Amino acid sequence: MKLLLAGANCRNAAALEVIIQSIWQDAQIERLDRDDWPDLASAPPQLAACELLVLDLLGMGRIRWTLQTQAELEALASGRRVALMLPSGTAGDAFEQAWAPGTAPVMLRHPVSAKDMRAALLLAAQRPVVRAAPPR
How far apart are the C-alpha atoms of 6 and 9, rounded to whole Å? Predict the structure, then answer.
Protein backbone atom coordinates (compact mmCIF):
# COMPACT_ATOMS: atom_id res chain seq x y z
CA MET A 1 0.00 0.00 0.00
CA LYS A 2 1.20 3.50 -0.81
CA LEU A 3 0.29 6.28 1.63
CA LEU A 4 0.73 10.01 1.76
CA LEU A 5 1.32 11.43 5.23
CA ALA A 6 1.01 15.22 5.30
CA GLY A 7 1.08 17.94 7.92
CA ALA A 8 2.45 16.08 10.93
CA ASN A 9 5.45 17.46 12.79
CA CYS A 10 8.63 15.36 12.66
CA ARG A 11 7.99 13.51 15.92
CA ASN A 12 4.37 12.68 15.11
CA ALA A 13 5.25 11.71 11.54
CA ALA A 14 7.87 9.26 12.81
CA ALA A 15 5.33 7.76 15.23
CA LEU A 16 2.75 7.49 12.43
CA GLU A 17 5.28 5.75 10.21
CA VAL A 18 5.89 3.15 12.94
CA ILE A 19 2.14 2.58 13.28
CA ILE A 20 1.72 2.30 9.50
CA GLN A 21 4.64 -0.15 9.20
CA SER A 22 3.15 -2.27 12.00
CA ILE A 23 -0.05 -2.62 9.98
CA TRP A 24 1.41 -2.91 6.48
CA GLN A 25 5.03 -4.05 6.52
CA ASP A 26 5.39 -3.36 2.80
CA ALA A 27 3.84 0.12 2.96
CA GLN A 28 5.45 2.86 0.91
CA ILE A 29 5.12 6.15 2.73
CA GLU A 30 5.38 9.51 1.03
CA ARG A 31 5.80 12.28 3.55
CA LEU A 32 5.09 15.98 3.29
CA ASP A 33 6.11 17.91 6.37
CA ARG A 34 4.16 20.76 7.89
CA ASP A 35 5.22 23.46 5.44
CA ASP A 36 5.63 21.36 2.29
CA TRP A 37 2.01 21.68 1.14
CA PRO A 38 0.72 25.18 1.88
CA ASP A 39 -2.07 25.13 -0.70
CA LEU A 40 -4.54 22.23 -0.63
CA ALA A 41 -5.84 23.23 -4.06
CA SER A 42 -2.53 22.33 -5.72
CA ALA A 43 -1.95 18.61 -5.43
CA PRO A 44 1.67 17.55 -4.92
CA PRO A 45 3.06 15.01 -7.41
CA GLN A 46 3.38 12.39 -4.64
CA LEU A 47 -0.41 12.31 -4.36
CA ALA A 48 -1.08 10.64 -7.70
CA ALA A 49 -0.16 7.05 -6.79
CA CYS A 50 -1.26 7.07 -3.15
CA GLU A 51 -4.06 4.78 -2.04
CA LEU A 52 -4.52 6.32 1.41
CA LEU A 53 -4.09 9.92 2.56
CA VAL A 54 -3.37 10.77 6.19
CA LEU A 55 -3.77 14.51 6.62
CA ASP A 56 -3.08 16.42 9.82
CA LEU A 57 -5.18 19.54 9.25
CA LEU A 58 -3.84 21.27 12.33
CA GLY A 59 -0.28 20.74 11.12
CA MET A 60 -1.27 22.00 7.68
CA GLY A 61 -2.54 25.24 9.19
CA ARG A 62 -6.22 24.42 8.66
CA ILE A 63 -7.30 25.35 12.17
CA ARG A 64 -10.71 26.71 11.23
CA TRP A 65 -13.25 25.34 8.80
CA THR A 66 -14.07 27.48 5.76
CA LEU A 67 -16.05 26.82 2.60
CA GLN A 68 -12.82 27.04 0.62
CA THR A 69 -11.04 24.50 2.82
CA GLN A 70 -14.04 22.18 2.62
CA ALA A 71 -14.13 22.40 -1.19
CA GLU A 72 -10.39 21.71 -1.37
CA LEU A 73 -10.67 18.72 0.98
CA GLU A 74 -13.61 17.29 -0.96
CA ALA A 75 -11.72 17.59 -4.25
CA LEU A 76 -8.61 16.07 -2.71
CA ALA A 77 -10.47 13.21 -1.02
CA SER A 78 -12.69 12.30 -3.94
CA GLY A 79 -11.81 8.84 -5.21
CA ARG A 80 -9.38 8.15 -2.36
CA ARG A 81 -9.31 6.65 1.10
CA VAL A 82 -8.63 9.34 3.67
CA ALA A 83 -7.96 9.75 7.38
CA LEU A 84 -8.18 13.33 8.64
CA MET A 85 -6.71 14.45 11.94
CA LEU A 86 -8.82 17.39 13.05
CA PRO A 87 -8.26 20.22 15.49
CA SER A 88 -9.80 19.62 18.90
CA GLY A 89 -12.89 21.36 20.23
CA THR A 90 -15.45 23.28 18.24
CA ALA A 91 -13.06 23.76 15.32
CA GLY A 92 -13.14 19.99 14.78
CA ASP A 93 -16.94 19.99 15.07
CA ALA A 94 -17.23 22.26 12.04
CA PHE A 95 -15.07 19.94 9.92
CA GLU A 96 -17.11 16.88 10.95
CA GLN A 97 -20.48 18.51 10.31
CA ALA A 98 -19.54 19.83 6.87
CA TRP A 99 -19.46 16.46 5.09
CA ALA A 100 -22.63 15.21 3.44
CA PRO A 101 -23.83 11.82 4.74
CA GLY A 102 -21.94 8.96 3.13
CA THR A 103 -19.15 11.17 1.79
CA ALA A 104 -16.99 11.67 4.89
CA PRO A 105 -13.47 10.35 5.35
CA VAL A 106 -12.37 8.79 8.63
CA MET A 107 -11.88 11.63 11.11
CA LEU A 108 -10.22 11.79 14.49
CA ARG A 109 -9.35 14.66 16.81
CA HIS A 110 -6.13 15.91 18.30
CA PRO A 111 -4.61 14.65 20.48
CA VAL A 112 -4.56 11.24 18.81
CA SER A 113 -3.44 8.10 20.64
CA ALA A 114 -1.52 5.37 18.86
CA LYS A 115 -4.43 2.98 19.47
CA ASP A 116 -6.96 5.40 17.90
CA MET A 117 -4.66 6.15 14.96
CA ARG A 118 -4.16 2.46 14.25
CA ALA A 119 -7.93 1.87 14.34
CA ALA A 120 -8.54 4.88 12.06
CA LEU A 121 -5.96 3.69 9.51
CA LEU A 122 -7.47 0.20 9.43
CA LEU A 123 -10.96 1.65 9.06
CA ALA A 124 -9.90 4.07 6.31
CA ALA A 125 -8.21 1.26 4.37
CA GLN A 126 -11.37 -0.88 4.51
CA ARG A 127 -13.85 1.84 3.65
CA PRO A 128 -14.90 2.58 0.11
CA VAL A 129 -13.18 5.55 -1.40
CA VAL A 130 -14.56 8.96 -0.46
CA ARG A 131 -17.20 10.08 -2.94
CA ALA A 132 -17.54 13.61 -4.16
CA ALA A 133 -20.18 15.51 -2.25
CA PRO A 134 -23.39 16.33 -4.10
CA PRO A 135 -23.67 19.94 -5.30
CA ARG A 136 -24.87 22.34 -2.62
Answer: 9
At 73-90, the pLDDT tens digits run 888 888 889 999 998 888
| Nearest-angstrom CA–CA distance, 49 and 35 | 21
Q: How far apart are CA 94 and CA 11, in angstroms?
A: 27
Beta partners for residue 31, in sequence order: 5
Q: Residue 102: CB partners within 8 Å, gap ≥ 6?
A: 131
Q: State whether the Cα torsion 94-3-71-126 is positive or negative.
A: negative
> Which strand ranges, in their side-by-side order, compose the sheet holding 2-6?
28-32, 2-6, 52-56, 81-86, 106-109
CA–CA distance, 28 with 17 (Å, rounded to integer):
10
Please state, in angstroms and rounded to a whole number, the distance separating the CA atoms of residues 25 and 77. Answer: 24
With a cut of 90, say whether residue 23 has pLDDT above it: yes
Residue 119 CA to residue 43 CA, distance in Å, equals 27
pLDDT of residue 135 exceeding 60, the answer is: no
